[in-house]
Design goal:
About 50% of the residues lie in helices and about 10% in strands. With about 400 residues, the chain is an alpha/beta fold. It has 3 domains: about 5-105 and about 185-245 and about 325-405, Rossmann fold, CATH 3.40.50; about 110-165, no CATH class; about 250-320, no CATH class. Strand 3 and strand 4 form a beta hairpin. Helix 3 packs across helix 9, helix 5 (about 120-130) crosses helix 7 and helix 12 (about 250-260) crosses helix 15. The two termini are about 20 Å apart.
């Protein structure tokens, strides 16, 4: 039996994700076990997930995933390279994973590997450093400079490849596997489906952004054909109970107040350089809300997602070193019968501790693992306060993995 890992946000899990799972099993065999390493309460775009990780993990099982472990905060909210490094680190240290599978726009593993090798080279790093000294380029974001450097080294086709989001993550996954000297092999499959909040084309899979927009507008009837039947029931039930969707505007005051207490240390936060720290510090007194602050701080070289990440990292006191350090713990979120068997393998051959619920934190962990686990739970509590249900934070204390019999 082959074991395949997927690193995903599942925000929420949808039929495009199921298509990837189906392709993996069509390729490797129906008995293939699939482990999802899923983002926790925060996602890469610098926002809260639509609901807590346990609920999203439960929905992920309906895709055909057997085991869901957490890619915890703050790694789940990091930029592509740090997100990939953390996810690969977890997959590698489970001790039972054979492959890492991911979607990409190009679907060409060799082309992606070629770009990944160049992106790790001294020539590439030197070009990025050179661009930083050119006034007209100095204010460009890293993504623009990366594309420019790849174009100069490998040509237009390779530059076009790194202009697409799933290709970018794929390149980072391949690079992380090589840097970590992992025996896990990469697999890529062509991504299908829409992007962002656009309505899908006929016979196409809608994007997670589009599904989230429909959920925020309470148009649940329009997502029924975009997710599995079990996921649809879970989402509708979560909505009726006030457990979804999370909305960061509900905790806007808490975030702005928290930032005031960290004004003197903004520069030490991850993704918050001196220039962005000044912008946040200058704009904060006039901010009417978290979203208003983000809007005021955006610039050509500070994207919306970058600013959101920087603000939340500042709020939680996350430093650059916190993202460089490898995850010291993960969390078991959901599993089926085969997933339970995989957990036994992780116990016997893995090198990464896992927890199942908040009560496990002090009893099973020490040192860095305990520090990271407490940080995960603190981040969870902010999400719980952003849910429609008042007092949802107390329910988070009692969460346990979803076990599918």
């Amino acid at each position: 039996m082959k074991v395949v890992s997927i690193i995903a946000e599942f925000n929420p899990p949808h039929l495009g994700h199921k298509h990837l799972v189906d392709m993996i099993r069509a390729d490797l065999g129906e008995d293939t076990a699939i482990v999802a390493i899923m983002s926790g309460s925060y996602v890469q775009r610098g926002d809260l997930a639509i609901c807590d990780p346990y609920l999203r993990a439960q929905m992920a099982l309906s895709l055909g995933v057997n085991l869901v472990l957490e890619l915890p905060f703050p790694y789940s909210m990091a930029s592509a390279q740090q997100f990939a490094e953390a996810g690969v680190s977890i997959a590698r240290r489970l001790g039972c994973v054979d492959y890492l599978a991911f979607g990409s726009e190009c679907g060409d593993l060799n082309a992606l590997a070629r770009v990944a090798l160049v992106a790790d080279s001294a020539v590439f790093a030197q070009k990025i450093d050179e661009y930083r000294t050119v006034p007209v380029l100095r204010t460009q974001g890293y993504a623009t400079l990366r594309e420019r450097a790849i174009r100069e080294i490998l040509g237009e086709d390779a530059a076009a490849l790194v202009s697409q989001p799933n290709n970018i993550l794929a390149v980072e996954y391949i690079g992380a596997l090589r840097r970590q000297k992992s025996t896990v092999e990469p697999l890529t499959y062509p991504r299908v489906g829409g992007y962002h909040e656009q309505a899908p084309k006929p016979n196409d899979f809608p994007s997670a952004s589009y599904i989230r927009r429909l959920i925020s507008e309470q148009k649940y009837e329009k997502i029924e054909n975009a997710v599995t039947e079990d996921a649809f029931r879970t989402l509708c039930s979560a909505h009726s109970k006030g457990n979804a969707p999370a909305d960061i505007s509900r905790v806007s005051s808490a975030i702005l107040t928290g930032l005031y207490s960290r004004l003197s240390t903004l520069e030490t936060a991850a993704e918050c350089d001196a220039s962005l720290a000044r912008r946040i510090r200058d704009k904060l007194p006039d901010a009417k809300s978290y979203d208003h602050l983000v809007e005021m701080c955006k610039a050509k070289h500070y994207t919306d997602a970058h600013v959101r990440r920087a603000i939340l990292f500042s709020y939680f006191g996350i430093t650059p070193q916190d993202l460089v350090d490898a995850p010291a713990v993960t969390r078991l979120l959901a599993c089926d019968t085969l997933g339970q068997a995989l957990i036994k393998k992780v116990k016997s051959s893995g090198t990464l501790p896992y927890i199942t619920k908040p009560a496990d934190f002090p009893a099973r962990l020490t040192g860095e693992a305990l520090r990271q686990a407490n940080r995960i739970f603190s981040a969870d509590l902010l999400l719980s306060q952003a849910l429609p249900q008042a007092g949802a934070w107390s329910d988070m204390l009692k969460k346990s993995p979803y076990i599918k019999k």
